[in-house]
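Memo to structure team: turn this sequence into structure tokens by end of day. - J.P.
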Amino acid sequence: MSTFAEIRTAPSRNFKITVAYDGRGLSGWQRQENGVTVQELLEEAVGKVCGHRVIVWGSGRTDAGVHATGQVASFNTSSSRTPSQIIFGSNSLLPANIAILKAEEAPPEFHARFSATGKKYTYDFLTTPIRHPHYAWKSWWVGARLRWDRVEECLPHLVGEKDFATFRSLGSQEKSTVRKIFRARLLSPEPELKRLELIGSGFLRHMARAIAGTVFEIGRGRVTPLDFPGLIASLNRALAGAAAPPQGLCLREVYYEPLELADFQE
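Reply from structure team:
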């Protein structure tokens, strides 16, 4: 497979696209031998529209079952297709659960992953006493008895530049586990939903889901607000909650401008 640098040496245009997808039935973002992925389907559709093989580079991977409303990707093409032709031509070839929302030409040096300065993830918890089928594919049903006031007390301890090894997936290969979280807060987009919002410079593999799983443990009292700072500082994955199910997680936005903690102060 050609590398991004090798492809870019040919006369070409660089495109930035914003993609939304429903993760049900997909094996995540990254192309793989077994399973249908977002990257694979995009490369096939965009390649047909452009008239040549393309490699679509995502801002980052999402796991099987995880959704996105603001995934960003980039690719190079020698085609003369306009942004509108790329959007509508590709969408006509993509399955109903994937769509390109926006396409624009980008500077040659732009790369969806390496140019990113931050990401926003949300995780939705369904808090009804009885599970609801209409929310099953996009939230985690946790029932109505969690102490969300305790969760709100804990979340500020996530903000800042810290070593987040406590929420690192076992076996992951990241060289550094230090990340900066700009915002961690709880929202209520609907009366029956609680939404964890995380904005950070980057996330370790399964980090957002591990935090969501720990939120669940806080809500049911197995982790207390007094315990939480020490849990983060321990760098011990075994002390945090299990990774929450993937269907509640959504990649909402990818940032490309410089970000500062002050930008997210309420």
